[in-house]
Amino acid sequence: MKILIVVLSFVLTTITVKSQSAFVRFETNKGNITVMLYDKTPKHRDMFLKSVKQGLYKNAEFNRVIKAFVSQGGELDDTILNREKRHPELGTKRFPAEIKPGVFHKKGTLGAGRDDNPEKASYFSQLYFVVGKVQTDAQLDAVELKKKKKFSAAEREIYKTIGGTPHLDGDYTIFGEIVAGMDVADAINAVATNKDDVPLSPVVFNVVVISKKDALKIRKTM
């Protein structure tokens, strides 16, 4: 049964990759990471692509790295919140959440950061890659009990084999996943940091939108 679940999960992932329309490349000083943006979260996909084209993620940094949890890039919470405090006339700008069933915090997913707003709306300028940990059945049972939710058999198997951060499910928008370069994402998550989780040496990145022609090539190899 377990083998069947893993096979079905692989097949579903392959089908998902082949059907997606947008891919981007994170060019970092640790190597490149190719990311598939989910069509299932079209508003975040389009918001992110617009931000990339506007240069928001040019010479950006992974500025908060928590080992075996997430690698966060873009603007820090304090930067965003302090700017809003200094300029109340600009208002508080958040992007409506797109938290969808079946889109979960497995290792390698790309999420949008946010503050503690009750709508779970995202920042426009902060993202994170999930690294997380391999989970046990007992740990997943505890998350289900606390969050009053139920993991599907496929989700449970992925968390037990690939890993991730299941306690974030339902609270943050996930809008993409790594399809190449997970070793680079792991290397970023392993860098030395200070007590505030800031890398001791800057981890710089640029995001480039992959052309439709090259995206088609990626889909054909999956």
Automatic annotation (TrEMBL):
Record-linked InterPro entries: Cyclophilin-like_dom_sf, Cyclophilin-type_PPIase_dom, Cyclophilin_A-like
Might you give the EC number(s) for this enzyme? 5.2.1.8
- The PPIase cyclophilin-type domain sits at 27-210
User: Main EC class of this protein?
Assistant: isomerase
- Recite the UniProt keywords alphabetically: Isomerase, Rotamase
What is the species of this protein?
Pedobacter frigoris
* Record Pfam families: Pro_isomerase
Tell me which Gene3D superfamilies the record gives. Answer: Cyclophilin-like (2.40.100.10)
Q: What is the lineage of its organism?
A: Bacteria, Pseudomonadati, Bacteroidota, Sphingobacteriia, Sphingobacteriales
Q: Which GO terms describe its molecular function?
A: peptidyl-prolyl cis-trans isomerase activity
- What name does UniProt use for this protein? peptidylprolyl isomerase
